[in-house]
Write a structure and sequence with these properties.
By secondary structure, the chain is an alpha+beta fold. The chain has three domains: about 120 residues, no CATH class; about 80 residues, Nucleotidyltransferase, domain 5 (2-Layer Sandwich), CATH 3.30.420.40; about 110 residues, 2-Layer Sandwich (Nucleotidyltransferase, domain 5). Helix content is about 55%, strand content about 5%. The chain contains 18 helices and four strands. Strands 1-2-3-4 form a four-stranded mixed sheet, with no helix packed on it. Helix 14 crosses helix 15. The longest helix has 22 residues. The relative contact order is 0.05.
């Protein structure tokens, strides 16, 4: 009947955004849906009659339009919150946009209730205000964390601009740029020539001189874009560029140092497992394990007494673990096989270099 009109979206009781997506659909195609429903001639079917009566009420169309015009932003925000790996800054920036949009709605009996419900939802989550304070401290909105946040850690306020790890993609990209600058400035000679890395940096940032890069680190600072240089450095390293390879080897060393600092404090029931302690590795930097491995192994062999450990990555979503924990709390018997939730991609054993298949 209406071949160019998409089918209505299905509603999922566990996904609030699906209900708003349905409202958006019926708002956009209201006349089309009304035309189809009102042409149905089945008075004995009560649901059809109810639908026809509702569609003839002008208030129904007005309600659809009101919801989309004032709260349509929630559709995009809810979709984005379903994405993994959103930073704290990204999440709270979106929440700020939502609250600003809700506050801008002209007050009436409906908007007041929605605003109050939103505020109650935030207040019911005890961790929201804590995370908001940390976010505000990180972006400089507040200069000091409140006492109720500091009680969780005596050193959290020291990490505003401190790199917790030096092996993330942004730090690897920064290290490559610094090697080039140190050489060009005559400050420190890198272990290998910078020619290919410097050409890559200039191409990535679309610059010609050192001074040109300042815009990317100050006025138009974009950490994700700077970090994306790391992916290109991976390719360069796999094309046998020695400076790139040395940067990843150094990063592998820092990985080993970070892990060993934690492992020595781990409980015996964790370290004495089959394959040693299991380390869950999350983040795109681990996709470059072939470049990180030599530095990792060398430091572990020369600086620790750790005999073995297993590096693994998840095969499933973290939400599965949350669901299993909830089932335990509620005493619900759910079948589970933890071995299917992860894959061991590297097994470290002192004196032996093994991949996940156990070959030397």
């Amino acid at each position: 009947m209406l071949p160019n009109i998409p089918l209505p979206p299905e509603q999922d009781a566990t996904r609030w955004s699906s209900w708003l997506e349905a409202v958006a659909y019926y708002d956009e195609y209201f006349e089309c849906v009304e035309r189809v429903i009102c042409r149905l001639d089945s008075p004995e079917i009560n649901d059809i009659k109810k639908a026809q009566d509702l569609l003839r009420q002008r208030s129904v169309r007005d309600d659809f339009r009101y919801i989309i015009n004032n709260y349509g932003i929630l559709i995009d925000v809810m979709r984005r919150f379903e994405i993994q790996g959103l930073s704290l800054s990204e999440q709270f920036t979106m929440l700020e946009d939502v609250m600003r949009s809700i506050n801008d709605v002209r007050p009436n009996s409906v908007s007041v209730v929605i605003k109050e419900d939103m505020l109650r939802a935030f207040q019911a989550n005890p961790g929201h205000s804590t995370l908001e304070s940390i976010w505000q401290f990180q972006n400089g909105t507040i200069g000091k964390l409140p006492p109720d946040v500091l009680k969780y850690s005596t050193c959290i306020d020291k990490f505003s601009h401190c790199p917790i790890s030096i092996v993330e993609a942004w730090r690897i990209a920064h290290r490559a740029i610094k090697c080039c600058f140190d050489d060009l400035d005559g400050f420190e000679k890198p272990p290998f020539p910078i020619d290919r890395v410097w050409s890559l940096v200039k191409e990535h940032f679309k610059i010609k001189t050192q001074a040109d890069i300042l815009d990317s680190f100050y006025k138009n600072f974009d950490k994700a874009y700077i970090a994306s240089l790391c992916k290109k450095l991976v390719q360069l390293a796999r094309e046998d560029d020695e400076l790139s390879q040395s940067i990843f080897t150094e990063a592998g060393t820092y990985l080993a140092r970070n892990i060993s600092a934690v492992v020595v404090k781990a409980a015996p029931e964790l370290t004495d497992r089959d394959g040693g302690i299991h380390i869950l590795c999350v983040g795109s930097v681990w996709l470059s394990w072939d470049l990180l491995r030599s530095g990792f192994i060398k430091w572990m062999e020369n600086n620790t007494s750790i005999d073995k450990m297993s590096l693994m990555k998840l095969n499933t979503e973290m939400g599965v673990g949350a669901a299993l924990m909830a089932s335990d709390r509620l005493h619900l018997p759910l079948e589970r096989d933890y071995s299917k939730n992860y894959t061991v991609f590297y097994r470290y054993k002192r004196g032996v270099c093994c991949a996940n298949n156990g070959t030397v």
